[in-house]
Amino acid sequence: MSDLFDLSGRVALVTGGGRGIGRAIAVELANAGAAVVPSARSTDEIEAVADEIEANGGDALAVSADVTDPDAVTSAIDRAEAEFGNVDVVVNNAGFNPADALGRPEDVSTESFDRVLDVNLNGAYEVTTAAADSLLESDGGSVINVASVGGLVGLPRQHPYVASKHGLVGLTKSMSMDWAPDVRVNAIAPGYVATELTTGLQENEELRQSIIDRTPLERFAEPEEIAGPAVFLASDAASYVTGSVLAVDGGWTSR
Ligand code: NAD
Protein backbone atom coordinates (compact mmCIF):
# COMPACT_ATOMS: atom_id res chain seq x y z
CA MET A 1 0.00 0.00 0.00
CA SER A 2 1.22 3.53 -0.68
CA ASP A 3 1.83 5.81 2.29
CA LEU A 4 -1.17 8.08 1.58
CA PHE A 5 -2.78 7.02 4.85
CA ASP A 6 0.45 7.06 6.88
CA LEU A 7 0.23 9.35 9.91
CA SER A 8 3.77 8.82 11.19
CA GLY A 9 5.14 12.00 12.75
CA ARG A 10 1.67 13.47 13.36
CA VAL A 11 0.14 14.05 16.77
CA ALA A 12 -3.60 13.64 17.21
CA LEU A 13 -5.76 14.79 20.13
CA VAL A 14 -9.07 12.90 20.42
CA THR A 15 -11.69 14.26 22.81
CA GLY A 16 -14.00 11.70 24.35
CA GLY A 17 -11.21 9.30 23.45
CA GLY A 18 -11.78 6.79 26.25
CA ARG A 19 -14.64 4.77 24.85
CA GLY A 20 -17.01 4.26 21.95
CA ILE A 21 -16.28 6.08 18.72
CA GLY A 22 -13.48 8.19 20.24
CA ARG A 23 -11.65 5.12 21.51
CA ALA A 24 -11.88 3.44 18.09
CA ILE A 25 -10.61 6.60 16.35
CA ALA A 26 -7.71 6.95 18.82
CA VAL A 27 -6.63 3.34 18.30
CA GLU A 28 -6.84 3.51 14.48
CA LEU A 29 -5.00 6.85 14.28
CA ALA A 30 -2.24 5.21 16.32
CA ASN A 31 -2.30 2.14 14.07
CA ALA A 32 -1.74 4.53 11.15
CA GLY A 33 1.36 5.89 12.92
CA ALA A 34 0.16 8.96 14.81
CA ALA A 35 1.09 9.72 18.41
CA VAL A 36 -2.29 9.97 20.10
CA VAL A 37 -3.59 12.01 23.03
CA PRO A 38 -6.90 10.52 24.16
CA SER A 39 -8.77 13.00 26.35
CA ALA A 40 -11.94 12.90 28.46
CA ARG A 41 -13.13 14.16 31.82
CA SER A 42 -12.08 11.13 33.89
CA THR A 43 -8.82 9.25 33.60
CA ASP A 44 -9.56 5.50 33.83
CA GLU A 45 -10.81 4.94 30.30
CA ILE A 46 -8.32 7.23 28.52
CA GLU A 47 -5.43 5.66 30.43
CA ALA A 48 -6.61 2.23 29.32
CA VAL A 49 -6.67 3.45 25.70
CA ALA A 50 -3.19 4.97 26.02
CA ASP A 51 -1.92 1.69 27.53
CA GLU A 52 -3.47 -0.28 24.67
CA ILE A 53 -1.80 1.96 22.08
CA GLU A 54 1.58 1.71 23.81
CA ALA A 55 1.22 -2.07 24.13
CA ASN A 56 0.83 -2.13 20.33
CA GLY A 57 4.09 -0.18 19.94
CA GLY A 58 2.53 3.29 19.51
CA ASP A 59 2.97 6.56 21.38
CA ALA A 60 0.17 7.90 23.55
CA LEU A 61 -0.51 10.26 26.43
CA ALA A 62 -3.81 10.29 28.30
CA VAL A 63 -4.79 13.83 29.31
CA SER A 64 -8.00 14.53 31.21
CA ALA A 65 -10.02 17.64 30.39
CA ASP A 66 -13.64 18.68 30.35
CA VAL A 67 -14.18 20.34 26.95
CA THR A 68 -16.41 22.95 28.61
CA ASP A 69 -13.56 24.11 30.88
CA PRO A 70 -11.30 26.50 28.93
CA ASP A 71 -8.43 26.27 31.44
CA ALA A 72 -8.48 22.47 31.37
CA VAL A 73 -8.56 22.49 27.57
CA THR A 74 -5.61 24.90 27.34
CA SER A 75 -3.61 22.82 29.76
CA ALA A 76 -4.43 19.61 27.82
CA ILE A 77 -3.11 21.18 24.61
CA ASP A 78 -0.04 22.44 26.48
CA ARG A 79 0.65 18.94 27.81
CA ALA A 80 0.27 17.38 24.36
CA GLU A 81 2.65 19.96 22.87
CA ALA A 82 5.16 19.51 25.70
CA GLU A 83 5.13 15.73 25.25
CA PHE A 84 5.08 15.45 21.45
CA GLY A 85 6.11 18.93 20.19
CA ASN A 86 2.92 19.84 18.35
CA VAL A 87 -0.73 18.98 17.75
CA ASP A 88 -1.42 18.27 14.07
CA VAL A 89 -4.84 16.64 14.23
CA VAL A 90 -7.78 17.50 16.48
CA VAL A 91 -10.73 15.12 16.61
CA ASN A 92 -13.69 16.79 18.33
CA ASN A 93 -15.60 13.69 19.34
CA ALA A 94 -16.79 14.46 22.90
CA GLY A 95 -20.55 14.69 22.89
CA PHE A 96 -23.72 13.56 24.57
CA ASN A 97 -27.48 13.51 24.26
CA PRO A 98 -28.84 13.26 27.81
CA ALA A 99 -32.35 12.14 28.74
CA ASP A 100 -33.32 15.58 30.07
CA ALA A 101 -32.67 17.08 26.61
CA LEU A 102 -35.02 14.64 24.84
CA GLY A 103 -38.59 15.73 24.27
CA ARG A 104 -40.79 18.34 22.69
CA PRO A 105 -39.38 21.89 22.73
CA GLU A 106 -41.87 23.07 25.37
CA ASP A 107 -40.81 20.24 27.71
CA VAL A 108 -37.01 20.70 27.65
CA SER A 109 -35.50 23.30 29.97
CA THR A 110 -33.21 26.05 28.77
CA GLU A 111 -30.55 24.66 31.12
CA SER A 112 -30.71 21.25 29.42
CA PHE A 113 -30.59 22.86 25.98
CA ASP A 114 -27.58 24.99 26.94
CA ARG A 115 -25.67 22.05 28.44
CA VAL A 116 -25.92 20.06 25.19
CA LEU A 117 -24.79 23.05 23.13
CA ASP A 118 -21.99 23.71 25.61
CA VAL A 119 -20.44 20.25 25.25
CA ASN A 120 -21.25 19.31 21.65
CA LEU A 121 -20.66 22.67 19.95
CA ASN A 122 -18.89 25.13 22.25
CA GLY A 123 -16.57 22.38 23.49
CA ALA A 124 -15.41 21.62 19.95
CA TYR A 125 -14.87 25.33 19.32
CA GLU A 126 -12.91 25.69 22.56
CA VAL A 127 -10.60 22.76 21.81
CA THR A 128 -10.01 23.75 18.19
CA THR A 129 -9.20 27.37 18.95
CA ALA A 130 -6.96 26.37 21.87
CA ALA A 131 -4.97 24.23 19.41
CA ALA A 132 -4.98 26.93 16.69
CA ASP A 133 -1.29 27.89 16.92
CA SER A 134 -0.21 24.29 16.78
CA LEU A 135 -2.56 23.40 13.93
CA LEU A 136 -1.54 26.41 11.86
CA GLU A 137 2.15 25.63 12.34
CA SER A 138 1.69 22.03 11.26
CA ASP A 139 2.37 20.76 7.74
CA GLY A 140 -0.59 18.41 8.09
CA GLY A 141 -3.09 20.35 10.17
CA SER A 142 -6.50 18.66 10.19
CA VAL A 143 -9.62 19.10 12.31
CA ILE A 144 -12.25 16.38 12.34
CA ASN A 145 -15.57 17.17 13.97
CA VAL A 146 -17.71 14.18 14.87
CA ALA A 147 -21.18 15.47 14.03
CA SER A 148 -24.14 13.16 13.34
CA VAL A 149 -26.88 12.52 10.83
CA GLY A 150 -28.60 14.87 13.27
CA GLY A 151 -26.28 17.54 11.83
CA LEU A 152 -27.79 16.99 8.39
CA VAL A 153 -31.50 16.46 9.02
CA GLY A 154 -33.97 17.10 11.83
CA LEU A 155 -34.82 14.38 14.34
CA PRO A 156 -37.97 14.51 16.48
CA ARG A 157 -37.61 14.99 20.26
CA GLN A 158 -33.87 15.78 19.97
CA HIS A 159 -33.79 19.50 19.14
CA PRO A 160 -30.84 20.40 21.44
CA TYR A 161 -28.70 17.59 20.02
CA VAL A 162 -29.73 18.36 16.44
CA ALA A 163 -29.09 22.10 16.93
CA SER A 164 -25.64 21.32 18.37
CA LYS A 165 -24.72 19.01 15.49
CA HIS A 166 -26.04 21.38 12.81
CA GLY A 167 -23.95 24.05 14.53
CA LEU A 168 -20.91 21.79 14.38
CA VAL A 169 -21.44 21.30 10.64
CA GLY A 170 -21.69 25.08 10.19
CA LEU A 171 -18.55 25.59 12.26
CA THR A 172 -16.77 23.02 10.09
CA LYS A 173 -17.66 24.81 6.86
CA SER A 174 -16.81 28.31 8.12
CA MET A 175 -13.54 27.35 9.82
CA SER A 176 -12.47 25.42 6.72
CA MET A 177 -12.62 28.68 4.77
CA ASP A 178 -10.80 30.75 7.38
CA TRP A 179 -8.01 28.20 7.79
CA ALA A 180 -7.54 27.21 4.15
CA PRO A 181 -5.07 26.41 2.76
CA ASP A 182 -3.19 25.71 6.01
CA VAL A 183 -5.54 23.50 8.00
CA ARG A 184 -8.25 21.22 6.62
CA VAL A 185 -11.49 21.14 8.61
CA ASN A 186 -14.04 18.38 8.00
CA ALA A 187 -16.87 16.59 9.75
CA ILE A 188 -18.06 13.02 9.95
CA ALA A 189 -21.79 12.41 10.29
CA PRO A 190 -22.28 8.94 11.77
CA GLY A 191 -25.62 7.22 11.69
CA TYR A 192 -26.54 4.86 14.53
CA VAL A 193 -23.47 3.35 16.18
CA ALA A 194 -23.45 0.64 18.86
CA THR A 195 -22.02 2.59 21.83
CA GLU A 196 -23.11 3.62 25.32
CA LEU A 197 -24.80 6.68 23.79
CA THR A 198 -27.33 4.47 21.99
CA THR A 199 -27.80 1.81 24.69
CA GLY A 200 -31.41 2.94 25.19
CA LEU A 201 -32.14 2.54 21.47
CA GLN A 202 -30.39 -0.82 21.22
CA GLU A 203 -32.27 -2.23 24.22
CA ASN A 204 -35.71 -1.10 23.03
CA GLU A 205 -36.57 -3.83 20.50
CA GLU A 206 -39.17 -1.75 18.65
CA LEU A 207 -36.88 1.27 18.29
CA ARG A 208 -33.88 -0.89 17.39
CA GLN A 209 -35.84 -2.62 14.64
CA SER A 210 -37.22 0.65 13.28
CA ILE A 211 -33.67 2.01 12.96
CA ILE A 212 -32.49 -1.15 11.24
CA ASP A 213 -35.49 -1.06 8.86
CA ARG A 214 -34.69 2.60 8.01
CA THR A 215 -30.97 1.87 7.38
CA PRO A 216 -30.08 0.44 3.93
CA LEU A 217 -27.15 -1.53 5.42
CA GLU A 218 -29.67 -3.02 7.90
CA ARG A 219 -27.68 -2.67 11.13
CA PHE A 220 -26.04 -0.32 13.60
CA ALA A 221 -22.39 0.55 12.87
CA GLU A 222 -19.58 -0.69 15.10
CA PRO A 223 -17.41 2.16 16.49
CA GLU A 224 -14.44 0.90 14.42
CA GLU A 225 -16.41 1.68 11.23
CA ILE A 226 -16.24 5.40 12.06
CA ALA A 227 -12.48 5.20 12.63
CA GLY A 228 -11.44 4.45 9.01
CA PRO A 229 -13.09 7.63 7.72
CA ALA A 230 -11.32 9.58 10.49
CA VAL A 231 -7.93 8.14 9.45
CA PHE A 232 -8.74 9.11 5.85
CA LEU A 233 -9.65 12.70 6.79
CA ALA A 234 -6.55 13.06 8.98
CA SER A 235 -4.23 11.79 6.26
CA ASP A 236 -2.74 13.00 2.98
CA ALA A 237 -5.28 10.78 1.22
CA ALA A 238 -7.72 13.62 1.97
CA SER A 239 -5.32 16.42 0.95
CA TYR A 240 -7.99 18.06 -1.27
CA VAL A 241 -10.86 17.52 1.17
CA THR A 242 -11.91 20.42 3.35
CA GLY A 243 -15.23 21.85 4.51
CA SER A 244 -16.88 18.53 3.80
CA VAL A 245 -19.29 16.42 5.82
CA LEU A 246 -18.78 12.71 5.31
CA ALA A 247 -21.91 10.72 6.10
CA VAL A 248 -20.98 7.35 7.60
CA ASP A 249 -24.51 6.19 8.16
CA GLY A 250 -25.11 2.91 6.36
CA GLY A 251 -27.10 4.88 3.77
CA TRP A 252 -29.52 6.35 6.35
CA THR A 253 -29.54 9.87 4.82
CA SER A 254 -29.78 8.57 1.26
CA ARG A 255 -33.47 7.71 1.77
P1 NAD B 1 -20.01 7.67 24.25
O1 NAD B 1 -20.99 8.15 25.26
O2 NAD B 1 -19.61 6.24 24.26
O3 NAD B 1 -18.68 8.56 24.29
C1 NAD B 1 -18.72 9.94 24.48
C2 NAD B 1 -17.38 10.41 25.00
O4 NAD B 1 -17.42 11.82 25.19
C3 NAD B 1 -17.03 9.79 26.34
O5 NAD B 1 -15.66 9.45 26.35
C4 NAD B 1 -17.30 10.91 27.32
O6 NAD B 1 -16.48 10.84 28.48
C5 NAD B 1 -16.91 12.12 26.47
N1 NAD B 1 -17.46 13.37 26.97
C6 NAD B 1 -18.76 13.68 27.19
N2 NAD B 1 -18.86 14.90 27.70
C7 NAD B 1 -17.60 15.39 27.80
C8 NAD B 1 -17.04 16.61 28.24
N3 NAD B 1 -17.80 17.61 28.74
N4 NAD B 1 -15.69 16.77 28.18
C9 NAD B 1 -14.90 15.79 27.71
N5 NAD B 1 -15.37 14.61 27.28
C10 NAD B 1 -16.71 14.41 27.33
O7 NAD B 1 -20.65 8.08 22.86
P2 NAD B 1 -20.24 7.78 21.34
O8 NAD B 1 -21.40 7.13 20.71
O9 NAD B 1 -18.90 7.16 21.24
O10 NAD B 1 -20.22 9.30 20.80
C11 NAD B 1 -19.06 9.96 20.35
C12 NAD B 1 -19.48 11.08 19.44
O11 NAD B 1 -20.16 10.55 18.30
C13 NAD B 1 -20.46 12.07 20.09
O12 NAD B 1 -20.14 13.39 19.69
C14 NAD B 1 -21.80 11.67 19.50
O13 NAD B 1 -22.72 12.73 19.47
C15 NAD B 1 -21.37 11.23 18.11
N6 NAD B 1 -22.33 10.34 17.46
C16 NAD B 1 -22.65 9.13 18.00
C17 NAD B 1 -23.57 8.33 17.34
C18 NAD B 1 -23.98 6.99 17.89
O14 NAD B 1 -24.94 6.40 17.34
N7 NAD B 1 -23.34 6.43 18.91
C19 NAD B 1 -24.14 8.76 16.15
C20 NAD B 1 -23.79 9.98 15.63
C21 NAD B 1 -22.87 10.77 16.28
State the domain count.
Answer: 1
> CATH architecture, please?
3-Layer(aba) Sandwich
| Helical amount | 40-55%
Please name the CATH topology: Rossmann fold
Q: How would you name the CATH homologous superfamily? A: NAD(P)-binding Rossmann-like Domain
The total beta strand count reads: 7
Roughly how many Å apart are the termini? 34 Å
* Structural classification: alpha/beta
| Count of helical regions | 9
Shape: globular
Q: What is the CATH first-level class name?
A: Alpha Beta
Instruction: Report strand %.
Output: 5-15%
Low-confidence stretches: none
Mean pLDDT: 97
Give the neighbour order of strands across the main sheet. 3-2-1-4-5-6-7
Protein name: Glucose 1-dehydrogenase
EC number: 1.1.1.47
Keywords: Oxidoreductase
Domain Ketoreductase: 10-182
Explain what this protein looks like in three dimensions:
With 255 residues, the chain is α/β, with parallel strands linked by helices. It has one domain: NAD(P)-binding Rossmann-like Domain (Rossmann fold). The protein is 45% helix and 13% strand. It has nine helices and seven strands, in the order βαβαβαβααβαβαααβ. A seven-stranded parallel β-sheet has the order 3-2-1-4-5-6-7, sandwiched between helices. α6 links the parallel β5 and β6 (184-190). α1 runs parallel beside α2 (43-55). The protein is globular, with a radius of gyration of 17 Å. The two termini are 34 Å apart. The relative contact order is 0.15. The mean pLDDT is 97. Nicotinamide-adenine-dinucleotide (NAD) binds next to α1 and α4. Residues 15-16, 18-22, 40-41, 66-68, 93-96, 119, 123, 146, 148, 190, 192-193, 195-198 line the site of nicotinamide-adenine-dinucleotide (NAD).
